[in-house]
Design a protein that fits this description.
The longest helix has 23 residues. α11 crosses α12. 48% of the residues lie in helices and 16% in strands. It folds into 2 domains: 151 residues, HUPs (Rossmann fold), CATH 3.40.50.620; 98 residues, Uridine Diphospho-n-acetylenolpyruvylglucosamine Reductase, domain 3, CATH 3.30.465.
């Protein structure tokens, strides 16, 4: 970390507080460690108390702090998965801005081994590609020059809580983490204990092994995916549309739906389209539209995207970006 500024996302909960203390211990120059906190304002006074806790922690550690508050959410405007997805989008947009503001080369978040297990399980039951079953990547590009890091992915929550106990370090407890309103909470508090009770053992190692195997398989097919994109995908000014994506259905016909879905996922990532809302069935529907014999048809996709088949071309456009399909 010497000579490199690191921005750490701190909610005030046990995991992010432990990450902050660990990074503080290994940082030779504490001025290079910047704390960040996004107040979602979803829990009233408790959210404000989280913010105050992180402010006090920053002062105690002698670190700069960047804080942003979300606009107040109207009661009943979002529930469950929609609320989670919106909060995540806001949080990562804030982290990107904060990193740019403080000149951070790395952004660190406190995802743990437990988060990885929960994520893979959710993707199994919702339906996922190989890349999805690989789980949370240990790092990814947030934007040019800024890398998102998850250094605690191989560390359990219980280990982090033991570490905090040894330091006598307090942390905040978010009661919404126990609400059955959110799918992840039900996976954490209901599904995982039930599966472990049925099999009389912890399931973490088996799920993580599946994630690791899926990650390796995804890497093996990557050259085929890159070749498919080069042969059959056209973006922006190279196509007849100003924005979005055009797929040559004849060029991709012999690659099969599995490789095509992996290619679509790569394109979704590159365009920052809503990847988490695309479940397995939506990928299959999109692949069938591209590979099928029908030369016309369309489907609506998450994030105000629409896929339209016209002859031997499949167009994927943002509904409100003003682009029009070419004539003919």
């Amino acid at each position: 970390m010497q000579g490199v500024t690191v921005l750490v996302a701190v909610s005030g909960g046990a995991d992010s507080v432990a990450l902050t203390r660990l990074l503080h211990q290994v940082s030779p120059d504490h001025s290079r460690l910047v704390l960040s906190h996004f107040n979602h304002r979803l829990r009233g006074k408790d959210s404000d108390a989280d913010e105050m806790f992180v402010q006090n922690m920053a002062v105690e550690l002698g670190c700069e702090l960047i804080v942003e508050r979300a606009e107040a959410v109207k009661s009943g405007s979002n529930h469950g998965h929609g609320l989670e997805a919106n909060a995540r989008q806001q949080r990562y947009a804030f982290l990107e801005k904060a990193a740019k503001r403080c000149g951070a080369r790395y952004v660190a978040t406190a995802h743990t081994k437990d988060d990885q297990v929960e994520t893979i399980l959710q993707r199994i039951f919702r339906g996922s590609s190989l890349r999805g079953l690989a789980g949370i990547p240990i790092q990814r590009k947030l934007r040019d020059g800024i890398t998102l890091m998850r250094p605690l992915l191989k560390v359990s929550r219980s280990e982090l809580q033991e570490f905090l106990s040894e330091l006598d370090q307090p942390y905040r407890v978010d009661q919404s983490n126990f609400s059955p309103q959110f799918t992840r909470n039900r996976v954490r508090h209901e599904l995982i204990p039930l599966i472990q009770d049925i099999f009389s053992k912890t399931i973490a190692n088996g799920v993580l092994a599946l994630g690791n195997d899926s990650r390796q398989m995804s890497q093996l097919v990557r050259p085929l995916v890159d070749q498919l994109i080069e042969q059959g995908f056209r973006r922006g000014g190279q196509s007849a549309i100003a924005h979005g994506l055009e797929v040559d259905c004849k060029a991709i016909r012999h690659h099969g739906d599995t490789i095509l879905i992996e290619a679509f996922i790569q394109i979704w990532n590159a365009n920052h389209w809503p990847l988490q809302q695309m479940n397995r069935q939506k990928w299959i529907d999109l692949a069938e539209l591209a590979l099928g014999d029908k030369n016309h048809g369309s489907i609506n996709l998450p994030g105000d995207l629409k896929a339209t088949r016209k002859g031997n071309s499949l167009f994927i456009l943002e509904v409100d970006d003003g682009s029009k399909l070419p004539d003919g």
